[in-house]
Amino acid sequence: MMLWALILIPLLTAALIASGPRGAARGTAMLGSLISLFIAGLAAFQFDWGNSGAMQLGGSVPFLPSFGVEFSLGVDAVALALILLTALLQPLMVLGSFSAITSDEKTYYAWLMALMAPMVGVFAARDLLFFYVCFELTLVPMFILISLFGSTNRKKAAIKFFLYTFTGSILALAGLVYVAWKASAQTGAWSWDIATLQMVAQSMSLKEQSWVMLAMLAGFAVKIPLFPVHTWLPLAHTEAPTAGSVVLAGVLLKLGTYAVYRFVLPFVPAAVAEYAEAIALLSIVGIVYAGLICWVQRDVKKLVAYSSVSHLGFCVLGMVAINLIGAQGSLLYMINHGLSTGALFFCIGMMYERYHTRSMDELGGLAKKMPIWAFFMGFFTMASVGLPGLNGFVSEFMCLLGTFQSGAEGVGGVRGPLGFWFAAIAGTGMIVAAIYLLYMVGKVVFGPLKEPAGHGHHDDAHGHAHLPQDLTGREIGVLVPLAIGCVVLGVYPTPVLKAFEAPIQHTLAAYDGVNFEDFDGEDDDHGLALVALPAQGEAR
Amino acid sequence: MLINLLASHAAPQLHAAIEGGLGAITLYHYLFVAMVMFALGVIGFLARRNLIIMFLSTELMFQGAGLALIAFSRYHFNHTGEVFVIFVLTVAAAEAALALALVVLLFRQRESLDAQEWSSLQG
Amino acid sequence: MMSLLAAMSAGPDVPPMIAKLSIIVPEIVMFVGTCVVLMLGLSKTSTIRRASVGAAGLALIIAGIAAATGPQGVADSLLPHVMPYAKVLIAAVGFILLLLLTGTVDREVEAEADAGKPFDVLRANRAEFYAFFMFSLTGLMLCASADDLIWLFLALELTSLPTYVMVSISTARSRSQEAGVKYFFLGAFSAAMLLMGFTFIYGATGYTQLFGYHSIASVIGAQGSLGPIATLGFVMAIVGLCFKIAAVPMHFYTPDVYQGAAAGVSAMLAFVPKTAGFLGLMLLTSAVGWGLGGGYGLPSELRLLLWVVAALTMTFGNVLALMQRSVKRILAYSSIAHSGYMLVGIIAGPGAWGAGAPGNGLGAVLFYLMSYGVMNVGAFAVVASLEKQSGGEAEDVDDLRGLCKTHPLLGWIMVISSVTMLGLPFAIGFLGKFYLFTAGLRAGEVALIVVMGLNSAIAAFYYLRLAGAPLLEHRDEHEASLVVTAFNSRKLAGLISAVGVLALLPFADRLATLSDHAASYGASSEAAQASASQAEHVDARSVTDH
Amino acid sequence: MTLLDAIPTLSTLASGGAEHFAYHVAEAGPKWMALVPGLPLLGAVICLAMLLFKRDMGGRSRVPAYLVTALLGISFVVTLIGFLQWNHGQPWVVHAFEWINVAWGSGAGQSLQANASFYMDGLSWLWMLFVTGLGAAICLYASEYMANDKGYARFFSAFALFVVSMSCLVMGDNLVMLYLGWEGVGLCSYLLIGYFYTKPSAVAAAKKAFIVNRIGDLGLALGLYLTFTTFGTVQYDELFAMVSAGVDGSGHSLAGTWQATWIPLLLMIGAFGKSAQFPLYVWLPDAMEGPTPVSALIHAATMVTAGVYLIARMYPLFLMDEALTALHVVAYVGTFTAFLAATIGMAQFDIKRIMAYSTLSQLGYMFAGLGVLTTNGAAYHVFTHAFFKATLFLACGAVMHGFAGQLDLRKLSGLWNMKGWRIVSVAMLVGCLNLSGIPVITAGFWSKDMIIAEAFTTPNQVIAGSSLIGWVLLITAGMTAYYTFRVFFRVFVGPVEFEPGDEAHGHGDDDDHGHGGDDHGHAGHDAHGHGDGHFHPHAPGWAINFVLAALAIGSTVAILPNFMGDHGWVGGLLHDSTAFYQSGFGHHEAPAGEHALANSKMEVVPVAAHSAPAHGAPSHDSAPDAHAAGEVHANSFLGMNAHAVMYYVSTLFGLAGLAFAAYLHGPVGAWSFGIGNRTKAAVSRADGWKRAIGPIGRWAEHKWYVDEFYDLILRTPLRVIAHIFHAFDKLIIDGALVDGAGLLPRLLGRTLRPMQSGVLHGYATGMAAGIGIIVLIVLVMTLS
Fold first, then answer.
1. The whole model's pTM is what?
2. Which residue on chain C is closest to D747 by alpha carbon?
């Protein structure tokens, strides 16, 4: 019920905004998003955390019974955590847009609210097609937000964003439908229930699994984005309005990693085991490559955008390590990256509202003018760098440890495809991250004060934003929850980690029969012995 | 050339027909004529620029098909093909009426029946 | 239902001829309606003349009801249930098209008549126009009823011939005549091809009857293969039908004709001949059956032919649409592309008897025809409703800019229509594509599905332009604003289309089930059934075979 | 716990030879130990809150300073109380809360537990005592020093946070906590070096420090990962239980495994980064851009010794390796760093930089000490160094504070004789004496000796070339005395003469700096000498003087621990810690008091060469046979017992250096023992010498161009690669591939478009051709 409410309330709010008066738009959006947050909190309250691996709070409505399609919802701890992240970011995005959006507010807030519904849908879906539909539907509001409220190059960015991800996800659909067809051939009836399909998919031959994995990755890797299919992201980030960038970094990219976690890992274990090294290699290349590119950016926002590519490389790396620590780190990374990078985009947006530029050539030493802003910027940068005590560290640490452990014939019975060198090379990403993020902070926050020419009289130059020098209470209010999140998850991640344990164990159970050493490439066209899956918990 | 191909390699019953003999004129001959008519129609349609000639070429194609229908009808010893031909003739007549009306309309506009004149819509 | 079917076709007291007639009741209604329209249009009284549209609409409604309540199947057909579905669909879409076609012709004549001049019957052609429209739809319904090559040929010609006239007279501009001449001549050329194909089929089998005890299907079934002559016949027939559905290599006329004709007529061209072509294709391929080709589908020659044609058609349509500025040309090319998608369903075939919707390719085609018929009208309705102040249609994409602000209704119709055709999830267009996806994969056509997916992505680009121009862009200040035509029924048609694509969603499952049922294959022929189920066993080719 | 149960407790000592760490099961310590990091954390948060909510009165409120000082003081007291309550020999484990805790099974090693827990043994106590104690003292100093800086609250917030991080580093009961503190101190170092954030050089230095440290951190992280995969745990008590038993997490022997070699090597890289050892030392001199209290506490006394702490803490792991590969590297690198830094230090003019290089050099000593197997010497040197180097830095800071940021030893002279500068001068003298290792009266002498002597004692077969290490260290000791007293002679004695510095050098917010603000305008041109300028140096106030005095006394008092207990107080603490290692080559790390006694016992002790690491493991019996020598002899210094003679030898070197300094830089008069001749601040005999040695002096002054070299081989290529990647991303991936793929349909469309010529015949031909091709293909297929 509550999951339905989380999908419907944003839509309802969007409709209300669209039909209401212009002045009420942001208030309505705020109210709607707060209600959503409340309901998400309520859902978290109702969720049985002791049984976090089971799908809970579910419910389904038949949609295409003849196709076996249901609108079926349910969350385990992982999905719920990501929904909570979404619900947390939503009011902040609304709040953060108050001064940035001064024209056409109805359209803006309506689409911003409408965006939330499919995002929640993706995380809550237990039906493959419903998942896919929500996955695609996130494109529309984002496309509109970028093309209407973006900066100069917005059209191109929006089109590229849409087409790139759309193309990928159609291929992913082909892969998913293939699995569904396989299932229908086995069971005699079409079903899109993820748990059912998972079992069938695992029994496919390695060759089939590989193709299905390729198709799925074609869709999901673009969304993540994994090197080399990442180039839409910097463009979209740079052109999107602040809230758009925040939601893009905060949630939309997570759709990709979540999909990898939910579909690629448990559906095609043999193929993942076979190609984990290749995927890991791409991730690592992305980590270092994108990191170095960050270092030569002139546009702050683009820098942070590329840093997302680098960061999510860690996320994928942890996932293909195929062990608990790596997966834990990876899932935690999703949330952490949403908090810290989302917050960085907020900070950059606030700076942009004041100076109307994001060029590092024109800005410098803003700490002198905006100390509070500088504090938050520095804080979130450090969270992003992966400083222990803040959230980024725990996840990055665990991703790398998982990667390392994956190939080590160490204690604890952990096997996996990766190993020392993967961790070591990916670890250089830590250094690179420090290089580019400190480079940014050193340029923009610290150093001698530098403001764009003609900035002095900004009140008459830019009629709309009469913003004080430093952050307003509202802006601080946007950043503080994120900062608290960063600290809490950095200092006390245990509850989250504990909650993720059971769902990850479910997922990794698919690998119980996989012999990582055997997959050398030539000998095996054999299907995996169908591993008895732990029963997915029933919805209640 | 299609016809030759067909004739030399075609289905067994055609061979049977040829060898069994329907007299001097076999199905093959009828079909050959029909194909020639059809091919001439195609060639005429492609080669000529006068709209009326082009239309007549399509008529030739129709009639080629008609001839083949009758030949097959005879070969199969049923009347279906012949019935078909009657309908085809009707359709051809309707098309002719339409074509003539169209040609008149066009001639009024451009004083020419050159098909190349009509190429403003493109891309 | 089966008992009804039995009663209608083989009841002892009903003479066979009458039983046959009972299945073409909708066509008869249409024909009667056509005659009435013809006569009403010649009246001196303007009210009565106007009533001709009403009469046409009434005829469509009655025909639709007759189709819905009439016999639900024909015993000796391999596609026994296709008729009611197709005819109701034709009547429904026809009705929307009728709304869209109002005011297409005779505007000067009527204006003069209103101004007090005497009505000049010779110059008026409204009656003919609607009558031709009705004839065309009658032909289309006859295609659905066809069980014989002769019947099919005549029905196809009856569908096509009136449209040649409609294109030519749809506007007074020479572009319409150019469109007409291209359409007619190439149409005649392709009709000759079709006829030649039918001739060869007849020559190879000795029958023109498609299904039944003595029929093409039974001969092919008995032979177990097509043989060269029949193959040639089917190839030529299919190629001839490609003209109707605007598929490569017979697609060339499409953009020119769509652009030259009035928008309403273009909308009609996008639906009527296409439906006729697909019904014809379904009948022909059903006669061949999906059990011959190496055991898993159409005979390899036909499968290859359709495969290549499908891939080329969608690709050509989409890449050429990318280059266009004219909305009508974009829609024309997109119409080509949609034909390509639907061919996937034909290739996939019906699947196992009673296997259910997702695997039934023919059902997917019918479903897609339905969704395309509904969503396509919207886009054309917007173009039909707008005129430039200087006269002429506002057909450039740039003319649509800011439409959601200036003319919200039309703007949103355009947006919804484009987004639906784009195949964005939950729109009916997505479900159509999804149905084709599942059916195609069921048949193992993975590569074709991938081609189709990539094409959908290419298509997204121009649909985004169509949707983005009204929604996201602004009209320049100095540009002259557009005028909305006086014909509110055109807007109504657009509205029905836009609302339809949304309103059909809750019924999507019912519609899919209906489509599946309508396309259920091989009900009467034990042999065909057996071959079809045999096909189902082996058509589960894995992806590795490609 | 299952892990511990699985491991038999083995006897910790082999029959003969080296003693090393004995594993003791930890007992639960009192929870209030969490106050040690907790209180400074509270302080940091309060300061931060004041900053954010603008309650620091525009930076003029003194509350942050006193608050943090008080909290650090309490923290110190808590540490002290804890220490006094601590039962020697048994470590405390204080569990605060769960931090990272995941498990994928219940078997051995099937969980990752890294809790916020503290592990207190002798090593931790030692470090914590001087971290909190010095922290409190320096904080007090800073309360005056940093007064009138706008970022007062910011400074103390970061300062307190530093103590928190350092506490986590030292007290953490697992490697992840150590890593937390490790990076935490790195952050604080970054924040504090970059404290004057408007100054580009400070920002650059801060960045450099952080990034260079990160390189080390990667090593540490990998070492941690390898430790985890090898032992299945990162918690000290479990880890050391296994190491002392000589087994890894699955019970296999560690002997000869690659992990035994690589874990220490990787950890060592981390230690090199944090403790600024070659080649990762380049950040430390630049770090002097930070305020002086920061340099004193972080970049001299505490943080930079974290590397020493790490190696000492992990000493059992370092000893796992039979060949002691990592310890070799540690010894060589430490020695080289000591020497290299001394050469650079001799050629610098900025007194704070000289102190920075001396820190590097002394850190080198500590590492060399660790490398030559005297953890005791290293730790004791850390302890004494913390005091005297803090004293030196704070004295330098007082000078800098008083002379508007002047640090050039050529522009200052005769502070001893200036009013109000006596305490500073005395403190400086005490510091210099300590650093130079002037015998008997300085703690630095005793601690440094321990290392040098051990270098000569440790057999070459165990640490190859240990004698060479000893010689280099000796020479370096002489150089140290030289450059130390070079500073003292030039700045503190001689004629009173000064030139104020550029205020901004010390205090970035020049507009906010109250002192000397009015003088600043003239400072540039007329402030030669004390008489004619408008510049009035202000002598330090009570807080600075008090702290300096206390530290100077502390540095001297630090001699005492050397004479407490068997191995000195520090040795005693180490004995109860994982760092404990005493070679069988001679028990002569012993304090001087026992030295003569020990000396008499000096004899050849047979020890299997391999035995150092793996005594506990009984499976190694066969190993000695592998070594033909079979026995290893303790080394000696020129045939004499190193521990006995080293006092005299190093005294000789130290005094030689001092005398040389006096000769080159000493002023006329008693202060240079009658050999100096300097009469002006700027000129000394050394200038002539510098000319004599030609370019070498210039190279040394330019730090051997190492920074430039790094720029050339690392930064520049990396930057070029980054640009190439950027271009590649833009042009190839996005341009050619993505946009190209996007263009493909358009290109296809453009190619196909001419077919839509609008000409009827063209269409007809197209159709006919299409049909022809299709029919042909089908016919060929059918007939073939």
1. 0.88
2. C319
Residues of chain B contacting residue D761, judged by C-beta atoms under 8 Å apart: 46, 49, 115-116
Give the pairing of strands C386-387 and A69-75. Answer: unpaired
Model confidence band, residue D599 (pLDDT cutoffs 50, 70, 90): very low
* Minimum distance, in Å, between the CA of residue B49 and any CA atom of chain D: 8
ipTM of the shown complex: 0.86
Cα distance from C158 to chain B (closest Cα, Å)? 9
Q: Which residues of C touch A (CB under 8 A)?
A: 356-359, 419, 424-426, 430-431, 434-435, 437-438, 441-442, 446, 449-450, 453-454, 456-457, 460-461, 464, 468, 471-472, 508-509, 512-513, 516, 540, 542-544
Q: Nearest CB to D774: which of C228, C305, C315?
A: C305
Same domain, D690 and D715: no
**Quick one: CA dihedral A424, A428, A434, A437, positive or negative?**
negative
Query: Which residues on B lie below 8 Å from C202 (Cβ)?
Result: 69, 72-73, 76, 80-81, 84
Structural domain including D774 reads 706-783
Q: Sort out which chain B residues have CB atoms less than 8 A from C208's CB and list them.
A: 80-81, 84
Helix (H, G, I), strand (E, B) or coil at C474: coil
User: CATH number for the domain including B62?
Assistant: 1.10.287.3510
B123 occurs within a structural domain: no
pLDDT tens digits along B85-96: 999 999 999 999
Q: For residue D783, list chain C residues with Cβ-Cβ distance below 8 A.
A: 228
Give the model's pLDDT for residue A20. Answer: 85
Contact residues on chain D for B9, CB-CB shorter than 8 A: 783
Q: What does the pLDDT look like over D236-263, one tens digit per residue?
A: 888 888 888 888 877 788 878 888 888 8
Residues D449 and D575 in one domain: yes
| pLDDT value at residue D60 | 67
Please state the three-class secondary structure of A206-246 as a single string.
Answer: HHHHHHHHHHHHHHHHHHCCCCCCCCHHHHHHHHCCHHHHH
First to last CA, chain B: 34
Q: Residue C246 is which amino acid? A: A
Position D558 in a domain: yes
pLDDT band at C369 (very low <50, low <70, confident <90, very high): very high
In a domain, residue B14? The reply is yes
Q: Is residue D161 part of a domain?
A: no
Establish if A465 touches chain D: CB-CB under 8 angstroms: no
- C-alpha distances out from residue D65 to D62, D156, D191, D300, Å: 6, 6, 17, 21
Chains B and A touch (3+ CB pairs under 8 A): no
**Minimal CA–CA distance to D267: which of D322, D231, D323, D308?**
D308
How many cross-chain Cβ pairs, B to D, lie less than 8 Å apart? 34
- Residues of C within 8 A of A159 (CB-CB) are 461, 464
The answer to whether residues D716 and D688 belong to one domain is: no
Picking from C301, C315, C458, the nearest residue to D782 by CB comes out as: C301
Number of structural domains in chain D: 2
For residue A157, the chain C residues in CB contact (below 8 A) are: none
Do D754 and D732 share a structural domain?
yes
Residues D134, D228: Cα–Cα separation, whole Å: 34
Burial grade of D629 (CB within 10 A; 0-12, 13-18, 19 or more):
exposed
Q: How large a percentage of chain C has pLDDT more than 70?
A: 90
Q: Does D419 touch chain C (CB under 8 A)?
A: no
Burial class (CB in 10 A: 0-12, 13-18, 19+), C505: middle
Overall domain count for chain B: 1
Task: Say how many residues make up chain C.
Answer: 546
Residue D158 lies in a domain: no
Which of A433-442, C371-380, D530-539, D593-602 is predicted with the least confidence, judged by mean pLDDT?
Answer: D593-602
Dist. CA C291–CA D417, nearest whole Å: 112
**Domain boundaries defined on chain C:** 2-292+299-537
